[in-house]
Amino acid sequence: MSLNLEAKKVLLRKIPHGLFICGIRDGDEINGFTASWVTQGSFDPPLVVMGVRSDGSSHEIIQRTRIFSLNVLRADQKDLAAVFFKPQKGLGGRFDSTKYSFGEMGLPILDECIGAIECEIVGDVKKGDHTVIVAEVKSAKLIKDTDPLILSSTGWNYGG
Ligand SMILES: Cc1cc2nc3c(=O)[nH]c(=O)nc-3n(C[C@H](O)[C@H](O)[C@H](O)COP(=O)(O)O)c2cc1C
Predict the structure, then answer these.
(1) Distance from the CA of 139 to the center of ligand 1, in angstroms?
(2) Which strand (E) or helix (H) includes residue 64?
(3) Alpha carbon 87 to chain centroid, angstroms
(4) In what helix (H) or strand (E) does residue 11 lie, and over which residues does it extend?
(5) Spatial CA neighbour of 107 closest among 124, 125, 120, 97
(6) CA Rg, the chain, in Å?
(7) Residue 133 CA to ligand 1 centre (angstroms)
(8) Domain annotation for the chain: domains and CATH numbers
(9) What is the pLDDT of residue 103?
(10) Phi and psi, residue 130, nearest 5°
(11) From first to last of its 160 residues, what are the pLDDT tens digits of the chain?
């Protein structure tokens, strides 16, 4: 059976995605990156699933520390999402452009966003160019309940 690559691309890009800033911490160092491959995986326990690219600087850290935050962006925060996927001067440099504090698990949480969850990894699948991570939601902080930033509204693509 041969895979129709064009059809696969069109169809996979129809999967709706939100946009999030994933925050990680390694001792005194923090980092963050824009993530769209995020979904809920279980009600009880509350699980989320996220794809993390294997060649990113966060991949090794998240695999070792086993925890991360997910900051849910507001519909008007497209510029911030762009900051967090562009190259940065040094690890954590993207946080220079926004205020943040630390959550209950010590992970970076943006002062301005809809809110953030902190998660602990319970399993992963290392295959291909992304690692699929399954993680339990351990803390949740709601800042302002408003419309989220949706990938389809940005004109960007990540997937296919
Ligand atoms: C729209 C968009 C969505 C993205 N979604 C993800 C994602 O779900 N997972 C991921 O690992 N990278 C994703 N990326 C890529 C990372 O944001 C990007 O590679 C970043 O530079 C990684 O940072 P790091 O090397 O500091 O970890 C996305 C990029 C864009 C433009």
Answers:
(1) 23
(2) helix 57-65
(3) 16
(4) helix 5-12
(5) 120
(6) 15
(7) 14
(8) 15-147 (2.30.110.10)
(9) 98
(10) -130, 150
(11) 999 999 999 999 999 999 999 999 999 999 999 999 999 999 999 999 999 999 999 999 999 999 999 999 999 999 999 999 999 989 999 999 999 999 999 999 999 999 999 999 999 999 999 999 999 999 999 999 999 999 999 999 999 9
Cα gap 153→76, rounded to integer Å: 10
| Contact of 23 with 71, CB cutoff 8 Å | yes
pLDDT of amino acid 74: 98
Cα(158) to centroid(ligand 1), Å: 8
Cβ atoms of 41 and 95 within 8 Å: the answer is no
Tokens standing for residue 126: 């290392």
The response to whether residue 52 sits with its C-beta less than 6 Å from ligand 1 reads yes
